[in-house]
Write a structure and sequence with these properties.
Layout (H helix, E strand, L loop, with lengths): L4 E6 L8 H8 L4 E8 H7 L7 E6 L14 H22 L6 E4 L9 H4 L4 E5 L8 H4 L8 H11 L1 H9 L2 E4 L2 H5 L3 H4 L2 E3 L16 E7 L2 E6 L4 E8 L6 H14 L4 E7 L14 H9 L8 E5 L3 H10 L2 E4 L8 H8 L4 E4 L2 H4 L9 E3 L4 H12 L2 H19 L1 H18 L1
Parallel strand pairs: 1-2, 1-4, 2-3, 4-5, 5-6, 6-7, 10-11, 10-13, 11-12, 13-14, 14-15
Antiparallel strand pairs: 8-9
Length: about 425
């Protein structure tokens, strides 16, 4: 009887980008599937973790940063995390863990010592984004110009990423633009394969309404007869253009006096730094423009159940999306798969997916006047919105469908690496 192969997934917030791949391998009996992530994150994500996966957790120790140079903090945190991970993996190795292949997101340092712990294993790393030190990327938004200090920290913070690039047998990056951020000498080992969109699940909803609880307006029910304009991110912060959206909102409300503006996202920190005041970015922007808003039509729903998000994408008349030159949001792809009409910032990661006036529309990240004109034109043309939404879903099916496009590419890469 052939012994089962072992596959190990490593992600600080497992399952993360491995939600579909881990599920696939868990459903195939010839594989023993293991995963490890930060204990508190994994426990929070348990409802999303497929059955038949043995999950381990590690604890991230506290670090005394009092005498540490500022630019060293990020790297030290990654090294400490790698050491915490190593202790758990060595215990499991003594109990029989011997993966044939490891899929890991090295962004938090977890990929640093895997070759030393499991020298027999093949390593495929998820390379999401390389923080370059060029001023064009760092200073994209003049409001948050960071100059030499940020250049220096980006340089040193790339140290662990470069170590991971060197040790990996192969890599995956979800979009070609994200792949292009990596040094040219390593691009040859990185494959452009998106995580995939499960279009059998992420599709236009038949719901005639959706109810949100615990919003800024209490319980709110939206119906197909409502005029809805939506904005959705994981957390409300400048890297996703939240400040630009809020400054445009008074003008949007003025030109669309019956529209309800639904804002999805939490107040935690994902990609942008905290505001110097200590306030959340939602509080900061409400303090700046709140007096100019009709708050009865400004609905902050926070973080919502996944099906509610898909229902919103299906009900919305127009979905607005901003991002700086950074990783592309899952939510944008999911909105497209739900046939939402998209109006998005014409930044590099977006332009790879959305072709202007084909499967969505684009506007300049900083140009509020252009945004307002395009919103008005789209809202006054329902037939055009419907056509754009249909084409948005079709482009996701053709290029990013999980079962027909992305999963086969991932599986082919895994087979190729195992056989090399």
């Amino acid at each position: 009887m052939n012994q089962k192969k072992q596959i190990l997934f490593i992600h600080q917030n497992f399952p993360g980008q491995y939600r579909y791949l881990a599920k696939y391998f868990a459903e195939h009996s010839q594989w023993d599937v293991f995963a490890i992530g930060e204990r508190s994150c994994v426990q929070r994500q348990f409802p999303l973790i497929p059955k038949n996966i043995t999950v381990f957790g590690y604890d991230q120790p506290d670090i005394d940063k009092s005498d540490m140079p500022n630019n060293a903090e990020y790297t030290v945190e990654q090294i400490v995390r790698a050491e915490a991970l190593t202790k758990v993996l060595l215990r499991q190795k003594n109990q029989g863990l011997k993966p044939d292949i490891i899929l890991a997101h090295p962004g938090w340092g977890e990929g640093l010592y895997l070759k030393e712990i499991f020298p027999q294993a093949k390593l495929i790393y998820f390379f999401e984004f390389f923080f370059k030190s060029d001023l064009e990327t760092i200073n994209f938004d003049p409001e948050f110009t960071r100059g030499l200090g940020k250049q220096i920290s980006s340089r040193i913070n790339s140290a662990t990423a470069l170590l991971s690039l060197h040790v990996a047998d192969a890599g995956v990056s979800p979009t070609r633009w994200q792949w292009s951020t990596y040094p040219e000498e390593y691009q040859g080992k990185i494959n452009v394969i998106h995580d995939g969109v499960d279009t059998s699940v992420v599709k236009p909803s038949q719901a005639k309404s959706v109810t949100f609880k615990n919003t800024s307006q209490g319980e709110v029910t939206l119906k197909t007869t409502d005029e809805i304009i939506s904005y959705s991110v994981r957390n409300l912060e400048p890297s996703r253009g939240f400040h630009q959206f809020m400054r445009a909102l008074p003008g949007l409300q003025s030109q669309r006096p019956n529209a309800i503006f639904v804002i999805v996202g939490g107040d935690d920190q994902s990609y942008s730094g905290k505001h110097s005041s200590g306030l959340t970015w939602r509080e900061v922007m409400l303090k700046e423009v709140g007096d100019s808003l009709d708050m009865s039509r400004t609905i902050f729903v926070g973080k919502i159940p996944y099906q509610h998000l898909l229902d919103l994408f299906s009900l919305t008349d127009l979905h607005l999306y901003w991002t700086t030159p950074f990783v592309l949001s899952w939510s944008l792809m999911e909105a497209m798969a739900c046939e939402a009409t998209i109006l998005a910032s014409s930044t590099e990661p977006v332009k790879e997916v959305i072709k202007d006036d084909d499967n969505g529309c684009l506007f300049d990240f900083f140009d509020e006047e252009s945004l307002l004109l395009k919103v008005e034109a789209l809202m006054n043309d329902p037939a055009r919105r419907k056509a754009l939404g249909k084409q948005a879903r079709q482009s996701i099916i053709e290029n990013y469908d999980l079962q027909k496009v992305c999963l086969p590419k991932h599986l082919a890469l895994i087979d190729e690496v195992l056989e090399s």
